[in-house]
């Protein structure tokens, strides 16, 4: 279908009525890693470098950047004129790209999309000697926020997780990020194989010693189709994992980091704009291999996914066909989709935001809201949709109330 026909189709009347379009973010997926971690189910592909270096060959990077440009250009009619509030360059391991390549990517974007003043531009980086030496270059390329995939500072735990870096490299990477960036994030995981409360406490002490403005701490999950699913490691039971979460919340709180989302902790003024936009059911265009998009139109919400394999993605993107699947979110599915995101936020969202972003009337959730309040899972405030403390502890039970009947 030609572009004008496609747009006419997306703009035609439908059962939703959105009074305004939400903020728009851009996600860029860079799909390569030095080694695939045994717990990881993200779209990441091992880069086998015969030369043993930590850089992607220039030709590979150049070809991928060309595919991203073609992808973005083909997507422009769907987001015409809308300013971008945040960019997230994620992976994979984006820090395998050289600073000049990241600079090229950011100027390719700037030349095609209007960025909101002060647009947050996050890049995911892994610890490692090569990567660390690039942090200054990333900042000069226009990156405003670095997110470092530390996972743990403990050599033995990192080995169990199949990571290519050790504790000393984790510390060196965070120290460099703290010096170079005004705001940065550390990714940690907990409930690691054979982890004790004391070991987690050590990891937290090391992370907090750098006074990070933002910390993400994820419960290690054993995902299907990973090596850990085939050979499951012994991980802490539910009681210990719950004590671990209490420890994380207490120790971060004592350092002035507020738990504002299930896994995210931030000092005032350092919450992640990009992730907040996801949780508030904002729009995002995702470009790159396997990237997901959610785009709103006056009468519909569209979801897209791009070709997953890097080679197929690059071939198809250059031919103007980066999208492998798309569908309109059904009216009956919107309440649950909205709540899957919004209820992860400690303070939830305003009811008004639900009405604006789904284009649905209050009656679409009236019954579920009443049930949630009766069960003590939702706060009583009629103008907000927010979990109580109990609701936050039983989040999936609360979210399921909003499933289509
Ligand atoms: C997809 S990774 C990309 C960042 C970078 N490549 C890295 O691994 O450090 C983003 C984050 O997701 C988290 N993550 C990945 N797999 C996970 C799993 N199975 N359980 C919990 N967290 C996971 C890790 O904390 C990781 O930093
Ligand atoms: S480095 Fe990150 S993205 Fe790559 S395989 Fe490991 S967890 Fe997945």
Automatic annotation (TrEMBL):
The keyword Heme applies. Pfam families: HemN_C, Radical_SAM. The keyword Iron applies. SUPFAM superfamilies: Radical SAM enzymes. It is found in: Cytoplasm. Its main location: cytoplasm. Keywords: 4Fe-4S, Chaperone, Cytoplasm, Heme, Iron, Iron-sulfur, Metal-binding, S-adenosyl-L-methionine. InterPro entries: Coproporphyrinogen-III_oxidase, Elp3/MiaA/NifB-like_rSAM, HemN_C, HemW-like, rSAM, rSAM_sf. Residues 18-258 form the Radical SAM core domain. PANTHER family: COPROPORPHYRINIGEN III OXIDASE (PTHR13932), RADICAL S-ADENOSYL METHIONINE DOMAIN-CONTAINING PROTEIN 1, MITOCHONDRIAL (PTHR13932:SF5). Belongs to the anaerobic coproporphyrinogen-III oxidase family. HemW subfamily. Probably acts as a heme chaperone, transferring heme to an unknown acceptor. Binds one molecule of heme per monomer, possibly covalently. Binds 1 [4Fe-4S] cluster. The cluster is coordinated with 3 cysteines and an exchangeable S-adenosyl-L-methionine. This is Heme chaperone HemW. It comes from Roseateles subflavus. The lineage of its organism: Bacteria, Pseudomonadati, Pseudomonadota, Betaproteobacteria, Burkholderiales.
């Amino acid at each position: 279908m030609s572009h004008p026909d496609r747009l006419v189709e997306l703009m035609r009347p439908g059962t939703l009525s959105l009074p305004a379009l939400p903020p728009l973010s851009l996600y860029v997926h860079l799909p390569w890693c030095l080694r695939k971690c045994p717990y990881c189910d993200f779209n990441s592909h091992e880069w086998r470098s015969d030369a043993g270096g930590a850089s992607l060959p220039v030709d590979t990077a150049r070809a991928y950047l060309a595919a991203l440009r073609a992808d973005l250009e083909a997507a422009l009619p769907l987001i015409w004129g809308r300013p971008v509030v945040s960019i997230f360059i994620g992976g994979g391991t984006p820090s395998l790209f050289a600073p000049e390549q990241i600079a090229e990517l950011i100027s390719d974007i700037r030349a095609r999309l209007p960025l909101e003043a002060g647009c947050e531009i996050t890049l995911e980086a892994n610890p490692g000697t090569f990567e660390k030496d690039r942090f200054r270059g990333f900042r000069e390329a226009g990156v405003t926020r670095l997110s470092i995939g530390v996972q743990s500072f403990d050599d033995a735990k990192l080995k169990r997780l199949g990571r290519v870096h050790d504790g000393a490299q984790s510390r060196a990477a965070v120290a460099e990020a703290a010096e170079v960036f005004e705001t940065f994030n550390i990714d940690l995981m907990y409930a690691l194989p054979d982890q004790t409360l004391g070991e987690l406490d050590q990891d937290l002490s090391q992370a907090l010693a750098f006074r990070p403005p933002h910390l993400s701490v994820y419960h290690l999950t054993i995902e299907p189709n990973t090596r850990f699913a085939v050979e499951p490691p012994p991980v802490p039971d539910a009681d210990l994992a719950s004590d671990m979460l209490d420890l994380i919340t207490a120790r971060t709180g004592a350092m002035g980091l507020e738990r504002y989302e299930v896994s995210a902790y931030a000092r005032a003024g350092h919450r992640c704009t990009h992730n907040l936009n996801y949780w508030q059911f904002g729009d995002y265009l995702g470009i790159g291999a396997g990237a997901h998009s959610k785009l709103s139109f006056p009468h519909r919400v569209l979801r897209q996914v791009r070709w997953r394999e890097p080679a197929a993605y690059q071939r198809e993107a250059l031919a103007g066909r980066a999208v492998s699947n798309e569908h309109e979110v059904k009216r009956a599915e919107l309440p649950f989709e909205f709540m899957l995101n919004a209820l992860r936020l400690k303070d939830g969202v305003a009811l008004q935001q639900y009405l604006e972003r789904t284009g649905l009337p209050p009656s679409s959730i009236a019954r579920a809201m009443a049930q949630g309040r009766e069960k003590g899972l939702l706060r009583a405030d009629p103008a907000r949709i927010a979990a109580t403390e109990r609701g936050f502890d039983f989040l999936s039970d609360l979210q399921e109330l909003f499933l289509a009947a």
